[in-house]
Amino acid sequence: MMMSDEQVSEEAAWQAVLARDGTFDGRFVTGVLSTGIYCRPSCAARHPRRENVRFFAGPDAAEEARLRACLRCSPRSVSREEEAVARALARIGDGSDAPTLAQLSSEVGYSPAHFQRVFKRAVGVTPAQYVRTQRMARAGEVLSGGNSVTKAIYEAGFGAPSRFYENSRDRLGMTPSAWRDGGSGVTIRWAVVETTLGRMLVAATEKGICRLSFSEEPDHLRARFPRADLVEGGEAFEGLLQDVVSAVEQPGCSRTIPLDVQGTVFQEAIWRELQRIPAGETRSYAQLAAAVGRPGAVRAAGSANAANNVAVLIPCHRVVRSDGTLGGYAYGEALKRDLLRREQGGDRSRLDE
């Protein structure tokens, strides 16, 4: 990947391309070797195969590799809306001293209502939602540095502790420390238990469940968190483990179980939407993408679904193909069918055979 360390990783770049994420426009361009063109991350053209893609720091680097600019997305030009969103993102920063929507829209030359639409179309969330995400991330950074909760709350820009806790309830993991640096400095308790769905691995930090999977062994957990202190079982873990087993045996009753997960803004939006699907119902990938304000990001919604590290509790099994057939599942179609059947009261007629 021909980009500096300060820029996004290849995996993050590819996920941005799949999501057509306009917030990455200007940070890199996507070179498609099979066609000889390069595009913005948000280009509306059909996605290329991953093996045909190379990422470049900008148009000059892409053209040095003898690629030409896409006529559809014009990666060398910057629209007024893109410039306004880029200025707004820079102005918001880490959210600690963010302006109001009225101030922000005035600074970039739009009415508040119009700029809110422009921003959400480009970023996928409203300015207020983006500010809350940035503040929660900032609070996590301050907390991970050993500071008190009160200090972290105010340094992150929350006016009062109540505002912090209101926002933290909407996040899947308040401070996703286990997912940074291979779990360095984090204690993860785990167990492998037998359920009616098969052998299940459950792992949790002090903040919540960080891994739930089927047919995995402790070695898989060590590979995911090579720098964490992995501890089997324990009295403090037992109660949480029993809650998880009950939620798996009766899927649909897991919303009160705390989670400690981390993803991109888009992935976390998809995961939250998964948790909003009522037990016994399903959604297509297209419906899921539309629900988070990105109707064109169907493939990215599928990728976010596949990136879920906490099966059942984040119910990715509730997503099916647009034609109603089950589609794939990380732990096999039979397990997905069983989970859905349990949620639907055992009615086989509601599932394709």
Short description:
The chain is 41% helix and 12% strand. It has 353 residues and is α/β, with parallel strands linked by helices.
Task: List the defining traits of the structure above.
alpha/beta; four-stranded mixed β-sheet; 14 helices; 12% strand; disordered C terminus
Overall description:
The protein is 41% helix and 12% strand. It is α/β, with parallel strands linked by helices and 353 residues long. The strands form three sheets. It has a four-stranded mixed β-sheet with strand order 3-1-2-4. The protein has a four-stranded mixed β-sheet with strand order 7-6-5-8, sandwiched between helices. β6 and β7 form a beta hairpin. α3 crosses α4 and α11 crosses α13.
Q: Quote the distance from N terminus to C terminus.
A: 44 Å
Choose one word for the global shape. Answer: globular
Q: How many whole angstroms does the radius of gyration measure?
A: 22 Å
User: What is the residue-mean pLDDT, rounded to a whole number?
Assistant: 80
Could you spell the SSE succession in H and E letters? HEEEHEHHHHHHEEEHEHHEHHEH
Number of strands: 10
- SS strand fraction: 5-15%
Any chance you could write out the topology, listing elements then pairs?
Layout: H1 10-19, E1 29-32, E2 37-39, E3 53-56, H2 59-64, E4 68-69, H3 80-92, H4 101-108, H5 112-123, H6 127-144, H7 149-155, H8 161-168, E5 187-195, E6 198-204, E7 209-214, H9 218-224, E8 229-232, H10 235-249, H11 265-276, E9 283-284, H12 285-291, H13 298-306, E10 319-320, H14 333-343
Helix pairs in contact: 1-13, 3-4, 4-5, 6-7, 11-13, 12-13
